[in-house]
Design goal:
alpha/beta; single chain; 191 residues; Rossmann fold
Length: 191
């Protein structure tokens, strides 16, 4: 018998995309609890607040005679952070049964990145993991449209679907009384 070296899994890198219009609201509080309790050992974390990286309106150039422009400014920052992560986490409260505007606009720009020269976006996203953390003031079934958007995005991109951590609350701090969410947060990213 010969000793074979054990292949080590590369360190994971989590990009937390905060899409709340409130800083440190319920959704961010729940995501930070989950990250602190359940990220794999050695995992890197990067937190980006999408409102701090405002994006221009998305222009669909797929069928125009124009080439997709090279991402620049905040688009470049978000593209580079996205490609550097093994795991993307949408930290997004439920707004009108779906993602907040900043998160939806970020996803809209993925369409442009799919066609941007030299980016090879879809192939590079393949095999990564997409997660969601959300807090809502209603029953969990009201989050289904948002969950569907994220799950279908993962599927389309060939990404693994990690799931969504749901919390309940409206006023800041309410989620800290949601015992079910707090228990699930302890192991959410371990799965």
């Amino acid at each position: 018998m010969t000793d074979q070296p054990h292949a080590t899994e590369p360190a994971r890198s989590f990009l937390f995309l905060e899409a709340s219009s409130r800083g440190e609201g319920n959704t961010v509080q729940l995501a930070r609890l989950a990250a602190g309790a359940s990220l794999p050992a050695g995992a890197e974390q990067r937190w980006l607040r999408l409102d701090d990286h405002p994006l221009p309106p998305y222009r669909d150039l797929r069928h125009a005679d124009a080439e997709q422009p090279e991402p620049a400014g905040h688009l470049r920052t978000l593209l580079d952070a996205t490609l550097a992560a093994t795991d993307l986490v949408f930290v997004a409260p439920l707004y009108w049964y779906t993602l907040p505007t900043s998160a939806k606009l970020y996803l809209d720009h993925w369409t442009g990145w799919l066609k941007a020269p030299g980016v090879d976006f879809r192939a590079r996203m393949n095999g990564r993991t997409l997660w969601g953390v959300t807090v809502l003031a209603d029953g969990p079934e009201k989050a289904e449209p948002m969950i569907g958007t994220l799950r279908l995005t993962a599927d389309y991109m060939g990404m693994r679907w990690g799931g969504v951590l749901l919390g309940n609350g409206s006023r800041p701090g309410d989620v800290l009384r949601d015992e079910r969410a707090l228990i699930e947060a302890k192991s959410f990213f371990a799965g």
